[in-house]
Structures are given as structure tokens and as C-alpha cells.
Write a structure and sequence with these properties.
The structure holds 2 protein chains of 2 kinds. By secondary structure, chain A is of the alpha+beta class. In chain A, 25% of the residues lie in helices and 20% in strands. The model of chain A has no long low-confidence stretch (mean pLDDT 93). Chain B is built from 8 helices and 6 strands. Classes of the chains: A alpha+beta, B alpha+beta.
């Protein structure tokens, strides 16, 4: 993302809107500028702000006048008055920033929007996580901190050393050059993104050990990690995972529950 | 949608009170199809999902590839600074459904979610339906609809550099957009504006709602949190930034 110097009037509305804090007013020009190294190309500023398309010189004149009289103008906080935010044409490897940060861009590897994973949302038709198994959804950079792939690789390598299996239908797995070692493509390691999810699957009995390992590695990272653990319920809706997590002292208050209403409806598949 | 899984509440504090207050105003139901399995006639399935949801007074409704009920406006006039229409447009949301996406409906009352899930079970759309809410509430909702849970995914909390996280109220509001489109800094700015009486809690909630691209932000809960902050009730527990944003350990 960049900000058009002619169009920007230095109102500063876009500064708090940026989830990464990558926008600031340049004291020399009085215009907003994007720190390209910190920008994750999420398009929040461009897409989320409403626009007025005003004539920039006229807006500058009004703002100068208001400032001279110390008037406090109380504008709407989510408007770019002159449509100054301008998306850039991205090239590899910077394209991964947008792929992992803009939820409206579906991931090429899975065709899914957002973070590109189905997890247990569709487990009732995919059977991805079975009874007695645990699916881990380990997310980096969220909420509102961001992460570079180099730090994600530290976790994927540590998990690979435990012999876990990375989910194939996952955007981070698709960027691995060696899934057995958890190694990611070298050229993306310094790219910063809003967040990404690593998915692995184990048996239920391994849940405490994996969570302990994730916690230890997380302490070495310069970001925040949030973890979800899933399982398939028995036919009566019961499951053992909740009590395992409670026994280890983990919060189990909130969760996502698949109601089992999905089924094959495509005739050619049903046949 | 992992974007709904990790909504922050006091239950995720390092030292939560023995019985943290329940989150009783935030219930999400979403629908997702699987390519080649149940994605036939998808537009009609998703429109049915949205129509059924609208009958149960949702506070937000979303199409992950198009947006929620509240959207940014691409061409405002300067008059917007004095008078701005903020009415949601469910008809637009219905007509925009054009193919693969994830649909979501957000409710502020348990009974609304329960009624919606009952209707969904009766409609038998064939797509996967999930509830993102306190696990016990979801289990009770299933039982009331005569369903057995198929799978469950627990949010087990926050790890790593927790000191980089903001204070609790900011987290409670910003994590309602799990894709991270709602910046901590914008929430903090609006909290200040609400305390300065420059904006109402409802205004502040609406501003934020426009940044959530998939429509899972709960403006009713956000309004209540802004109002709580304005009333200057002391934060229960310490700030999340000093480490309260993780599980008890």
C-alpha cells in the first residue's frame, strides 16, 4: 500500500486504522507515509475507510485556516477525504503478505478465504479429524501483532522434530520445501503478515505434550500465538478432549461446535 | 472460522476470578460448503441461511467474500460529518450471494441462536453448520434442536509475547474481528472519544463494524463494552498487556 503524496492532506485518519501501526505523518512533507517493511498489505486502510473524493488543495486550504484559528474540527474518524490510499501491484515474495493478511483474497492452495483453512468446520463431510484424534490450529501474529515467516518456521521445525503430521490442505504447509523438517521457502522468511495458521494432527493422548511444546517455543518468538484444539465427538455428542484440556489447566470456555448437519448433496458424489 | 474462535474474555486471563462473568451476548452461527461435496445450488442454500437468520433478529450478518451488514461507503459527501446514514442493508447482502463463501449470523441472545439452529436443522441445507460461542451454550443449543455435536474445537488461549497485547477492553472489542481488521489503536481512539462524549457507544461500535469484512463483529456487544468503559467502571483484573491474556498456568 502507498499513499498518494498529492492527494494526502495529512488529516491522520488512516494512522489508527492500520492494524500494524505502519502509517505515520512525515514531519517534512506533512503527508502520511506507509512503512513498507511493517505494512502487511491487508488493505484495511484502503477498503475499510469510507471516501469523499474531495479536491486536495481545497481541503488543505480549509485545514490551514482551521488550524490558524485553533478550531477543533471533529471529523468522522473512518474517512479518507481525498481517496489518497493507493494499492500497489505486488510481486513475489511480497505477494504472500496480502495472501495471508487480506481476508478477501482466497488462498491459492486451498481456495478458502481468510486464513485459508477448513479445520473442523467441515469435519462432518471431510472426516479430517476422527474420534481419538486431536487437530491443532496454531495461529501466529493474532491479535493485532503480526508475524514474520522466520518465526513461524521456528515453530514448524520444532513441531516437525516431534514427528507430527502437517495438514496438507493448509496455506503454510503449501509453502514448505521440506514438510518433514518443517522448513519454509527461504525467500519468504522475512516477509511480515497479519497472521497465519499451522495445523497438525495427533492422537488425543499427545495433546498435553504438544501444548507444552507450543508454549515453550512461543516464549522464544516475538509475537503472540493462539491455539485451538479440536476433536470428533462420539455419536452421542460426548468427547474426551475437554476433560484432558481442563486437567492440564487450559481454558475451555469458548469453542466452535460443528453441528453435524453437513452431508453429501452433489448427486454425482452421492452416487 | 478461526476468526470467531479466539474472542477475548476474562476466561483467558492468566488469573481469572474463580467464576468470570459469562459471555451471554455473543453467539455466532456460520455455514460453509465443501467443494465438490455439497456446493451444488449454493446460492439458494446460502440465501436460505440468511433469510432464516433475519427472522431471529441478528445483530450482524456476513458473507465472507463480500462483507457484513455494515460497510464502508465509497463516495460520501462532506455532509457525512454532520449526518450519516448507518442503516444496515440486508437486501443487498442477500442479492450479493453469488457462490462459494462462508455465511455468518451473529446474535446477542441465546434464544435467538437456538431458534435459528432449530430452523436450520429443519431446513436441512446439507452444508456444514457451526456454532462459535461458549461451549456449554453450544451444547445446550444442540440438545434443544435434537442434534448431537459432531466435532468441537476449543480455544485454549494466548501464548508468547503477551506483553505486546493491549488492555482488556481493547482486546475484548478488537478480537471480535478475528481477521485482525480492527486495529487496537482505532479501538483505543474510539474509547477515548466515547469517554470525551465526542461519540456515543453506538456510534463507536458502528465505525468498527465497517472494518470487519466478513460480518462477524458484534456491534451490540461492542456498544455495551464502550458504555461500560464510559461509565468508568474499574477494569476487573489487570491489563492484558502485562500478561493477563493467557490461561492460568
Amino acid at each position: 500500500m502507498r499513499i498518494d503524496e498529492y492527494r494526502c492532506v495529512g488529516c491522520g485518519n488512516c494512522i489508527p486504522v492500520c492494524p500494524m501501526g505502519a502509517i505515520a505523518i512525515d514531519p517534512h512533507t506533512g503527508r502520511a507515509r506507509v512503512n513498507r517493511d511493517e505494512c502487511v498489505e491487508c488493505h484495511t486502510c484502503y477498503r475499510g475507510m469510507s471516501k469523499e473524493h474531495l479536491f486536495p488543495p481545497a481541503v488543505r486550504a480549509v485545514r490551514r485556516l482551521a488550524r490558524a484559528f485553533r478550531f477543533r474540527f471533529d471529523p468522522e474518524p473512518d474517512i479518507c477525504p481525498t481517496d489518497a490510499l493507493t494499492p500497489e501491484e505486488l510481486t513475489w515474495p511480497r505477494t504472500v503478505r496480502r495472501a495471508f493478511s487480506d481476508p478477501l483474497v482466497p488462498h491459492e492452495s486451498t481456495g478458502i478465504h481468510g486464513r485459508g483453512t477448513a479445520e473442523v468446520k467441515t469435519n462432518d463431510v471431510t472426516g479430517r479429524v476422527k474420534e481419538g484424534e486431536a487437530g491443532f490450529v496454531i495461529e501466529f501474529g493474532r491479535p493485532g501483532i503480526g508475524v514474520r515467516f522466520r518465526e513461524i518456521q521456528e515453530m514448524t521445525r520444532a513441531l516437525a522434530a516431534l514427528g507430527v503430521e502437517f495438514e496438507q490442505q493448509n496455506p503454510v504447509t503449501s509453502l514448505m520445501t521440506d514438510p518433514r523438517a518443517g522448513t519454509l521457502r527461504e525467500e519468504i522468511l522475512d516477509e511480515k503478515i497479519l497472521s497465519a495458521i499451522v495445523e497438525v494432527k495427533t492422537g488425543l493422548e499427545q495433546v498435553p505434550a504438544i501444548l507444552r511444546h507450543v508454549r515453550e517455543v512461543s516464549r522464544r518468538l516475538d509475537t503472540v500465538v493462539v491455539v485451538g484444539v479440536s476433536t470428533r465427538c462420539a455419536p452421542d455428542g460426548s468427547e474426551r478432549l475437554g476433560s484432558i484440556l481442563k486437567g492440564e489447566g487450559y481454558a475451555t470456555y469458548r469453542g466452535k461446535t460443528n453441528l453435524g448437519l453437513g452431508r453429501v448433496t452433489r448427486q454425482e458424489v452421492a452416487r | 472460522m478461526t476468526n470467531t474462535l479466539h474472542r477475548y474474555s476474562e476466561h483467558y486471563a492468566i488469573h481469572p476470578r474463580p467464576e468470570p462473568p459469562p459471555v451471554d451476548d455473543d453467539f455466532i452461527v456460520f455455514a460453509m460448503a465443501t467443494r465438490g461435496v455439497n456446493d451444488d445450488d449454493l446460492v439458494e442454500k446460502y440465501r436460505t441461511f440468511a433469510r432464516l437468520a433475519l427472522a431471529h433478529d441478528p445483530v450482524n450478518l456476513g458473507n465472507a467474500s463480500k462483507g457484513g451488514l455494515y460497510r464502508p461507503e465509497p463516495a460520501l459527501t462532506p455532509l457525512a460529518h454532520w449526518r450519516r446514514e448507518a442503516r444496515p442493508n440486508p437486501d443487498r447482502l442477500l442479492t450479493e450471494i453469488d457462490g462459494p463463501t462462508t455465511m455468518a449470523a451473529v446474535f446477542r441472545r441465546r434464544q435467538d441462536m437456538d431458534g435459528f439452529v432449530r430452523d436450520l436443522a429443519a431446513a436441512d441445507l446439507g452444508v456444514s453448520i457451526n456454532v462459535s460461542a461458549p461451549v456449554d451454550a453450544a451444547a445446550a443449543c444442540c440438545a434443544a434442536a435434537g442434534l448431537a455435536r459432531h466435532s468441537v474445537e476449543y480455544s485454549v488461549g494466548f501464548e508468547g509475547r503477551l506483553e505486546r497485547l493491549p488492555e482488556r477492553t481493547v482486546l475484548e472489542i478488537s478480537t471480535m474481528c478475528g481477521h485482525g481488521m480492527i486495529a487496537h489503536t482505532l479501538v483505543r481512539k474510539l474509547l477515548d472519544w466515547v469517554k470525551e462524549a465526542r461519540r456515543t457507544p453506538a456510534d463507536a461500535a458502528r465505525y468498527l463494524c465497517r472494518f470487519c469484512t466478513c460480518g462477524v463483529f458484534n456491534p451490540a456487544r461492542a456498544e455495551a463494552l464502550f458504555a461500560r468503559a464510559r461509565a468508568d467502571r474499574p477494569e476487573r483484573g489487570s491489563s492484558a498487556g502485562d500478561g493477563s491474556a493467557s490461561r492460568a498456568s
